[in-house]
Amino acid sequence: FLNNTFFFFFEESYRGCKKLGDYTLSALNQSAQSGAEPFVTLANELQLYVTDFNNQYANWKSTQGTQKSKTNTLVQNLATLSSQKIDDWEFATQQQYRKNTPEFIDIFPNGRSPFQSGSQEDRLAAVSTLSKKLNDYDSLEALRIDVNSFLASLTASFNSQKSTKAGTKMESGALEAARVKVCEELFGTYGALIQFYRKTPLEVGNYFD
Q: What distance in Å separates the CA atoms of residue 193 and residue 52, rounded to the nearest whole number?
């Protein structure tokens, strides 16, 4: 009886917490229509916390959707790099410098591997390194322009995904703080209703679905 069951029950379920908060508030508002206490006071007090939690929940869900979209864009760019782009870049280089020539090896010292494996940061660095190396080859100006264009796109998608991920983490922190507060208020509401319905405690179940 001394533990806040709402706090622990919804520790891993923001959706469940939202559902109960909305239900309890709706039930209290219905009982408060006649102006009867303690329902008016309880509804007014709970309203603040439920509204804040629902706003934080909506922000969190929105940020999650944005993060998924940004992640997909980055994944698609990396997939393009590991197949189409590295194919195009090697082919363009070989129009000037055949494979295994000193120049080709200078441009692609580790072959395709850096562009097709490793962490996201490693593969981004590989494109950046290639871009800088091409500054030494005036005959590959068109290739350098294409590499720089793709590097800009890849960098933008990488930074956007990381920024959105950080934003999601911040939204999650705000949501968790709101969850704690609404669960504390729900526990207080439960206690007040137990006091009010102390002779008929089963009535309390009408406010908690």
A: 23
